[in-house]
What does this fold into?
Amino acid sequence: MVTAAETRVMTFGDAINDAMRTAMREDKRVILMGEDVAGGAEIDHLINDDAWGGPMGVTKGLVQEFGRDRILDTPITESGFIGAAVGAATTGLRPIAELMFVDFFGCCMDQIFDQGAKLRYMFGGKAKCPLVIRTMIGAGVNAAAQHSGVHYSVFTHMPGIKCIAPSTPADARGLLLSAIRDDDLVMFFENKVLYAMKGEVPEGDEGIPLGVADIKRVGSDVTIVAISRMVHQSLAAAEALAAEGIEAEIVDPRTLSPLDDDTILESVRKTHRLVVVDEDNPRCSVATDIAAMVADKGFDYLDAPIKIVTAPHTPVPFSPPLEQAYVPTPEKIADVVRQLF
Amino acid sequence: MAIDTSQAVAPIDAARLLEMYERMVQIRIFEDLAGKHFADGLVPGFVHLYAGEEAVAVGVCSHLTDRDYITSTHRGHGHCIAKGVDIDGMVAELMGKATGTCKGKGGSMHIADVDKGMLGANGIVGAGLPLATGAALTAKTLGTGGVAVSFFGDGASNQGTFHESLNLAAIWNLPAVFVCENNGYAESTPVHYHCSTVDIANRAAGYEMPGIVVDGLDLFAVYEAAGEAIARARRGEGPSLIEAKTYRYYGHFQGDMVTYRTDEELNRFKERDAIQSVRNYAVQHGMASAEELDAIDTHTREHLERAWKNAKSAPWPEESELLTDVYVSY
It folds into this structure.
């Protein structure tokens, strides 16, 4: 039980901001670049102030401390600045680049996938790319089809990239600190709906290790592996299920690549049932990836088929009732769990 | 905007000229032997030979040290050699041997030596420009005094990355030099078709940076223009674009039937061979004798033939190498 003195309450967005601030104080090679990460570049009255601090204000307040030589507003030029971030990382900086919405990855995919992810291997281990690409994911704010996707499976698929999708302020801060200190290319997926969510964040700057899952709820009847915002949807589902005598264990992988197979398998060994909840589209998703892993390595543990709860195989619709039907809800999750009993 | 020629570039003395001549000969013989051994089946995959274009790589890289960075293309052997990458390692890399520059894991299109400031040959046309822009950002941010040079072709000048990189380097005033090697063809497609402007250097004006056309077969012209651009970058005055008109003697790749060019055109360019021009200049100006130059040719050929011999008997990578070097840690 941690005391009040050992934690403070922060929002998810502030926790991310604080991780960057801490890392930038610690290491002068850490810089931040992206579209409007400060905003108002070269406008007289905003020289050491930010117009936006990012489209959702997550990077607000950094330019005042670190200046515009370390907080770099970029033009709208994803191939250019993501590629520059890769080149900078390979030559001695430790950049954080913000890809504003994950849906924009089509504009810079070569630089991530064929350059950043592969250069260490192609160069025989004689180079590294200590770059963090932070990007927003998630539906639920009526941002429509090109600003609401999840798509981290595209990147977990790729050798050379590490992928993180935190669900709480504490996890966001701890994992981003570790990501910035990590010497590999890390993509950090921030669900935009979570930015205002508050949570306890421990003091201390050790960071949370990559590749380690977290049990967000202990249970004995079913394992729910849930990613990012779906942790919270699943917690709500678990409340309803508990009233019916079903105790769900919720495993939050936190890091999608490398994936903590052992924690997931250990949980399924205990509960004998698995549901994976993922806001992404279903085909070739992290949900199917985890399901396949457990079907292979945990086959003998299972008393029921593995189920996944995901978005449908559609783009994200604009109309609010349609968007609500798109994102997995606690009710849908609970319904699927009930099918296993 | 023209490049400011008011600040003189250091003249080339005899010793320097001989170094540059030797580099050019290393590239030429390296490429000729790579082509020969590719035909013999010793080089897996693709090779794209730089023979004919030596004056550009050497004229530019003569101004650079290990703290400066370059990015390159699929036609990268010449840039690697000019930047000082170990030639024996390169030969072994072409063969995929464990003693290769990249332990055999990259091959011709991905030879790199980051410690020598060589950020890699690259299989994606136009991909080197943003990477060089990033290396220039590092130099500026850390105050290293270094510059970053991006070599790319006429084909790459149409990629979006060209536009994005020049714009970004310009607005951030980065110590970058963009060197377009216009060899007249993007694969089989001629530049008079694929490019909306006759001189790619014209595009510099759109980014308000200096742009200049040079004769890429003239080592001295390249050396001078590059020297000015690199000095400008080091002075903190920002990026430049150099377009070197040049010509590749071989096809786009080995195996290319090159039906899109005539022998007459090839011979016309060979008459202006860059290495022969340097040789003529050196002899005419008393900077070297024909015998000295011949000796360079001979020992370079011997070195390269030894390199191929050694590479042939070098070991393949262990199978365990398949799984290493993906990450620093995982």
In short: The radius of gyration of chain B is 19 Å. The first helix of chain B runs from residue 14 to 39.
